[in-house]
Write a structure and sequence with these properties.
The complex is a heterodimer.
Chain A: H1 2-23, H2 31-41, H3 45-55, H4 59-88, H5 93-99
Helix pairs in contact in A: 2-4, 3-4
Chain B: H1 12-32, H2 39-58, H3 65-88, H4 94-120, H5 128-155, H6 169-189, H7 194-212, H8 220-242, H9 245-268, H10 273-278, H11 291-294, H12 304-312, E1 316-321, H13 323-327, H14 331-343, E2 347-352, H15 362-369, E3 377-379, H16 380-383, E4 392-396, H17 405-408, E5 427-432, E6 452-456, H18 459-472
Parallel strand pairs in B: 1-2, 1-4, 2-3, 4-5, 5-6
Helix pairs in contact in B: 1-2, 1-9, 4-5, 4-8, 5-6, 5-7, 5-8, 6-7, 8-9, 12-18, 14-18
The chains are: A mainly alpha, B alpha/beta.
């Protein structure tokens, strides 16, 4: 258990640095899609929500799990779709003409 | 307790590898978002990685038959609600949509941690790390959830966008924070308590509301970005509770990049994050310099016909679009005007302030939707020196981003925000519905500048009249 926690901590710290590094050069015009896209990524909580639901042993736990799965699915599906809709519009004139 | 590592046909090692691949797709997704060329592909890659991670996690669980049905129903409801609202939402309502999706994510993280705490019960006693991360996940997730609800309500104008402040507000918020910390320390260091966790949850929900209420509507994007980072951290904390690395990686990536993005966004407004969160900018001032005292200054207004002729015989025109343009659904009319002017040989470009619209990049999306060529959109630094060689600057539905007070009036709440130098062009046409101050609630001296001509009316209506006048000229 202790070594697992050290592993998790390592993953946590390295991910934090990667997270900052990877977006440090994003242009202002992409701030909104970036916010929305990263918003979709924390929808990964759906994995946890499903696991909790499957482990539920009481009606209360099932209700909580059910709500968590709905909320997490809205987060992940809505997040990716809305980001895609925004990004679809970032096309150059050439691409726009080619698609017509 | 690791509830995901139970036996199944996918071995723990294979599972770890698949989760690693998913984590890489998340990083590639964020990386792709750094350039307009690769952004859409990046988002797609992350979505595929997400789908794989979720599908693989299904092989790790052993639900009862009824639970399988419940999971399917819940995923179905969530997928329909998420996809429909994401497809139907108007581009202008994008900021509150992101707030809503963020809020449910935070809510899910908090709920997962609560469920796990209830399940572990006494067995979880003594596991300090589990207790700590549970408390973090519940507290941060709940703040993010409640804060997002308020941010949504403000942007949707269910609540007023004006900061809601009262005496002793910071003290109340401070007490809430201390209360949460106190309970958190007890739960981590002393013992378990379901009731205490419930109180922690309630205090965190109240804090989320109280924390966002005093922040003005114009600053909401920065807040949403911060709450997005919060949800990321809550998800990472849930990852510790469940012993799931893909949750830790995904959550932490968002937590870190979101925090950094929040800082970049407040920098773009020329303000510190502390100022954005605690200064209640946008509250109408009570002094004579405020909007109330503004009415007795004189302004010059013009007709669409006059202005149309003036535009048609210019060499260079810059359009400064703002949120009002989007609200009036006038993007297409603006593009038509630009085309009509180009047909007359006028050079037209759009000056995009970093915070034009209600979120950075929002205006680019709205104009791209109207097929405005990407090359005509100029960022502030790129175009600011060109204003002095410009005949007419057409301000459409923007206000605060061309307010010279930000440059020279130290008492102004927006002092220090970088602005577009619209006031340096030969003539400024200010299209506005009325003399009402902008989203930040600050009076704009540019409207009283002798070089400025006001064109009152609905932005779309006025633009259509201008197009006709330009064509006739």
């Amino acid at each position: 258990m202790n070594s697992a926690i050290i592993d998790y901590l390592t993953v946590f710290v390295l991910s934090a640095f990667v997270g900052i590094e990877v977006i440090s050069k994003v242009p202002t015009i992409l701030h909104t899609p970036l916010m929305s896209g990263s918003n979709a990524i924390h929808g990964i909580i759906l994995v946890g929500a499903i696991a909790v639901m499957a482990e539920a042993r009481t009606p209360l736990a099932e209700v909580l799990g059910f709500i968590a799965v709905i909320m997490a699915t809205i987060n992940v599906v809505g997040g990716f779709v809305v980001t895609d809709r925004m990004l679809e519009m970032f096309r150059t004139r050439k691409q726009t003409e080619a698609s017509k | 307790m690791n509830i995901l590592a139970s036996t199944s046909f996918i071995s723990p090692n294979l599972l770890a590898v698949i989760y690693l691949i998913a984590a890489v797709t998340f990083i590639l997704g964020l990386k792709g978002l750094s350039s307009p060329k690769s952004a859409r592909r990046g988002n797609g890659i992350a979505a595929v990685g997400m789908a794989v991670a979720i599908l693989v996690s299904l092989t790790q669980i052993h639900p009862k038959a009824t639970q399988v049905i419940l999971i399917v129903i819940a995923v179905g409801i969530g997928a329909i609600v998420g996809a429909l609202s994401a497809r139907k939402v108007k581009m202008t309502a994008m900021p509150q949509m992101v707030a809503a999706f963020n809020g449910v994510g935070g809510g899910a993280a908090a709920t997962v941690a609560i469920s796990e705490y209830l399940r572990l019960g006494v067995a979880g006693r003594g596991a300090v790390v589990t207790a700590l991360t549970t408390v973090l996940s519940v507290a941060i997730g709940a703040v993010s959830f409640a804060g997002s609800v308020i941010a949504f309500a403000k942007l949707q104008e269910i609540l007023t966008g004006v900061p809601i402040t009262y005496k002793g507000q910071q003290v109340v918020n401070g007490i809430l924070v201390l209360g949460i910390l106190g309970i958190a320390v007890y739960l981590v260091a002393v013992g378990t308590g379901t009731a205490l966790l419930g109180i922690l949850l309630i205090l965190a929900l109240i804090l989320g509301v109280a924390f966002v209420l005093p922040i003005g509507g114009a600053d909401m994007p920065v807040v949403i970005s911060l709450l997005n980072a919060f949800t990321g951290l809550a998800v990472a904390a849930s990852g510790f509770v469940l012993g799931n690395t893909v949750l830790i990686v995904g959550g932490t990536l968002v937590g870190a990049s979101g925090t950094f993005l929040t800082k970049m966004m407040s920098d773009a407004m020329g303000r510190s994050l502390g100022n954005v969160l605690f200064a209640a900018v946008g509250k109408p001032t009570e002094s004579g310099a405020g909007p109330a005292g503004a009415t007795d200054k004189s302004v010059r207004s013009g007709t669409p016909d006059d202005i149309g002729v003036m535009l048609a015989y210019s060499n260079r025109v810059i359009i400064v679009p703002g949120y009002g343009l989007a609200v009036a659904q006038a993007q297409h009319a603006a593009r038509d005007l630009a085309r009509a002017l180009e047909a007359k040989g006028v050079e037209v470009s759009y000056a995009i302030h970093p915070v034009a619209g209600r979120m950075p990049g929002h205006m680019n999306v709205l104009l791209a939707e109207a097929d405005v060529p990407y090359e005509q959109l100029k960022e502030m630094d790129e175009i600011n020196d060109d204003f002095r060689n410009t005949d007419v600057t057409l301000v459409v539905g923007a206000n605060d981003v061309v307010n010279p007070s930000a440059r020279n009036e130290a008492s102004s709440p927006i002092y220090g925000m970088p602005i577009l130098n619209a006031d340096q062009s030969k003539t400024i046409v200010f299209m506005k519905r009325s003399m009402r101050p902008g989203f930040a609630g600050v009076d704009n001296p540019l409207m009283y500048d002798p070089k400025t001509i006001m064109l009152f009316g609905d932005a779309k209506d006025s633009l259509i009249k201008l197009v006709a006048a330009v064509k006739a000229a």
